Amino acid sequence: MAEEVKIKVVVDATQAKQEIDEVEKEGERAATGMRFSITDKLRQGYQAAAPTISQVTQSTRSGLSDVFSGQINRFGQMVNDFVLGDIDDKARATNTAREETANMFAFTAGQRGQIPQEAKNYFAARQQFHESREVGMSMINADSAFAGESLGKIFEQIGKHLGNSLSDAINTGFNKVRAWFESWNPFG
Length: 188
Prior knowledge:
This protein is mostly helical. The protein has one domain (about 15-185). Helices cover about 85% and strands about 0% of the residues. The chain is built from four helices and no strands. The chain has helices at about 15-85, 85-110, 115-140, 150-185. The model has no long low-confidence stretch (mean pLDDT about 75).
């Protein structure tokens, strides 16, 4: 007959648990270090690209306004002419002539208590002068011969150069991150 024997075994797993806890902590430290290192390398990549991006934006700011202004002025003038006809030209001429007349005759009118006839004659002459000038300005602003490069050519040029610079900046950032990964050793 077989006898049954019961043996009570006490296993002390304290040391194993401590070793497992230590491995977990080491893994957490490595993950945290890796996260901060990746963030740092991405930041360095961006910082390396930032001067290129800044250089592109600074050098194009004034150039862009010069290039676009001709086309925008032309388009705006065409809309004005379509919607307002020559009303806006006449309004600008009237406003300018009124300011000039007021500057010239305000004192005299104030002294006499009435607007002198000379002021009215001066206003009429200046208004006619400025109206001719404003109509001429509108004609020049609306004419394509004075507009400069077409918008299509402008955007084509911007896209070509901006795309190349942005691509170079992104590649620089990724190369820094890749170099860090290649040199990174989480256990050493």
